[in-house]
Amino acid sequence: MTRALIIGGGIAGTITAIALHEAGHEPLLFEAYDRTAEGVGAFLTLAVNGLDALLPLGLKDVVKSTGFDSPRMSIALGDGTRLAEFPLGGTLPDGTVSQTVLRSDLYVALRDEAARRGIHAEYGKRLIGASQTSSQVRADFSDGSHAEGDLLIGADGLRSRVRTIIDPDAPSPRYVPLLNTGGFAEGLDLPDEPGMLNMVFGKRVFFCHVVSPDGRVWWFANPARKTEPTTSELATLAGEKLRAELLDLVARDRTPATEVIRATREIYPAWPTYDFPTVPVWHRGRMVIIGDAAHATSPAAGQGASMAIEDAVTLGKCLRDVAGVEPALAKYESLRRDRVEAVVAAGKRNGDQKVIGPVGRVVRDFFIKRAFAKPFDEDPNAFMWNHRVDWDEKVAV
Questions:
Q1: What are the beta bridge partners of residue 207?
Q2: pLDDT tens digits for the chain (397 residues)?
Q3: What CATH code would you report for 174-275?
Q4: Fold of 3-173+276-384
Q5: CA–CA distances in Å: residue 304 to residues 5, 43, 148, 292
């Protein structure tokens, strides 16, 4: 049995812990914050490839209980032209489709399930350093404590400490010139099918809304920002100032965006978008990174959580089937790197269409109209959600 120290108790870390537990190992979760992430975060859509990977871990129904079906999406322009409507990622054999969930609800469900299975978690454990020998790893925390194990897994996100411990020359995240914000509008009666993601390439901002089964409207927007905002600049872009900017950006669009923004009690403070085109070093000795720590992707890919799930299941399989920690980590990287870098590239391409000036918008809209004038022979994004990780298939050595 391998004792795995998992740094980061969010979605990626918790699913990794469950996968390792199912593979017969002993996972220990360490979260930097002294409280859980309950009530923190916006929403996400979990694609079918991620949901399918959860099935053998007994987690798919846990996840589905937190959200609602999102089987379809529509694409429109700011002038009101509706270009296309198509399935969002297909359907699994049992009828499961993509799910839209609150990040915090998903986290709580996974956290509680991990605890039910007897997985140990500690909070207020901020990693400051780690070291290793040929047979063990040691994690040192800011409170003066430490932990020892056979393996250290960095599931600690975009600003991963484990990534820089493994490789002090690791690249910094790349700024994608978009901000993210959103919220939940109440009291509206929009003529939309519940669960349908309505995406609009507006004249000045990309906007998406979806009506939940309870009638609330969940939405997000991606205001463009050419230069990376500072922390102080983001702090000032909040509350009613952010609402006013968003209302100005959507004012010329023939969409429900204006009434949705006005009907939102609290708008999420804006945060910047980042990705990693590539992270050269994923593992060293008995240390490895997964999820956003290794391959953060733009939300435009719609695959961040699903990539983390695929990572967790694949790592669990490798540690189950490959003799020795270091060979297992090398095998894990070989199975994952090409795929995740292709997804990151696709997310960047999708996001680039949102960062367009007035002249570029005219050209973009022309080509988008032409692209949707006839059905796709093959959806260029299909490779993302058609991928499957088979838990029962033995990893070839």
A1: 200, 221
A2: 899 999 999 999 999 999 999 999 999 999 998 765 544 568 999 999 999 999 999 998 888 888 999 999 999 999 988 888 888 888 899 899 999 999 889 999 999 999 999 999 999 999 999 999 999 999 999 999 999 999 999 999 999 999 999 999 999 999 999 999 999 999 999 999 999 999 999 999 999 999 999 999 999 999 999 999 999 999 998 899 999 999 999 999 999 999 999 999 999 999 999 999 999 999 999 999 999 999 998 887 789 899 999 999 999 999 999 999 999 999 999 999 999 999 999 888 777 766 665 545 555 665 566 666 665 556 667 888 889 999 999 998 8
A3: 3.30.9.30
A4: FAD/NAD(P)-binding domain (3.50.50)
A5: 22, 12, 30, 7
The residue type of 152 is L
CA atoms in the 13 A half-sphere facing the CB of 386: 7
> Which tokens sit at 294?
């290794």
CA 254, 256, 257, 261 torsion: positive or negative?
positive
CA dihedral 352, 358, 362, 364 (to 10 degrees): 0
In the chain, the amino acid numbered 277 is P
51: nearest Cα among 66, 41, 29, 72: 66
Domain boundaries, the chain: 3-173+276-384, 174-275
pTM for this entry: 0.91
- Report the residue count for the chain: 397
CA distance linking residue 354 with residue 357, whole number of Å: 9
B/e letters for 43-73, b = 16+ CB within 10 Å, e = fewer, are bbbbbbbbbbbbebbebbebbbebbbbbbbb
